Amino acid sequence: MIKKTSFWIYLALVPSFSLLAIFNYWPVISALKHAFYQWDPGGIEKFIGFGNFIRLANDTILLQSFHNLIAVVLFNTTIKLAVPLFVAVLIFHLRTERWRYFYRVLFVIPMVVPTMVSILVWQYIYSDAGILSEALKSLDLTAFRRAWLGDPQIALWAVLSVGFPFVSGFALLVFYAGLMNISESVLEAATLDGVGKFRRFFSIELPLILGQFRVILILILIGSMQGYELFLILTRGGPGYKTLVPGLWMYLHGFSFNEMGYACSIGFTLFLMMLLLTILNLKFIQRD
User: Fold this and answer.
1) What is the radius of gyration, based on Cα positions, of the chain?
2) What's the pTM value of the predicted model, to 2 decimals?
3) Domain count of the chain?
4) Is residue 4 assigned to a domain?
5) Is 220 exposed, middle or buried (0-12, 13-18, 19+ CB in 10 A)?
6) Rounded to the nearest 10 degrees, how much is the dihedral formed by the CA atoms of 94, 100, 102, 105?
7) Percent of the chain with pLDDT over 70
8) Mind listing the pLDDT tens digit for each residue in 199-224?
9) Closest CA to 277 of 17, 32, 74, 97
């Protein structure tokens, strides 16, 4: 009877895994294959071996994009990791559950706003007649006005500042769930021993939520290396190549320059980098 039930369960899973293989795994396998081809959409595929990767190694623009990517990764893994954790700890230490619930809802509401809408709002904020420039003008601080997305010195940091104050609702909830999972007896023992709030956080709370910390760190790393939509919409990699990232360079080669084979080689390189960082993260950030 058990074997018969298991058979029907496995059978019911077949459609899901079939669709997953067709629409998720097969495109990835196809992209890895075409990284070794000179391939244009609708054209003839020509096997060139490591030709795309040799070109990639000598692509100075791609090198510049990796420099920008380093800044993006460092910014995101510090600010966008630390701020949600800090806010989650503050909410966790509120006295009443009613206020905890209120602030959780308050920070989660922005999650229902489509990402594209948020990006377009920030595009307006940074425009010449946008909120930021007009606010500086009204405060008689016109000397500080800039072409926020057109100044090579600040364009990258302007794009990275999108999403201020950087409290991701998802990361906040994950950290808060980890804190709520800590045994009350542990926290009460720390209180009875006279442990201060800072020591309690670094000695008890943070070590006990390293699992959640690791998950969010992996997601931030992958999102930072994959993401290019923000740069595509706001700057398209400009001015010059000051805000170009490898993901955007891959997109431009694939859909603007019709060099899909070369775009696949960039994607394959990013895949290897993300895989390496994920493995290192899983190896060195462990929870006892």
Assistant:
1) 24
2) 0.85
3) 1
4) no
5) buried
6) 130
7) 97
8) 888 888 888 888 888 889 888 888 89
9) 74
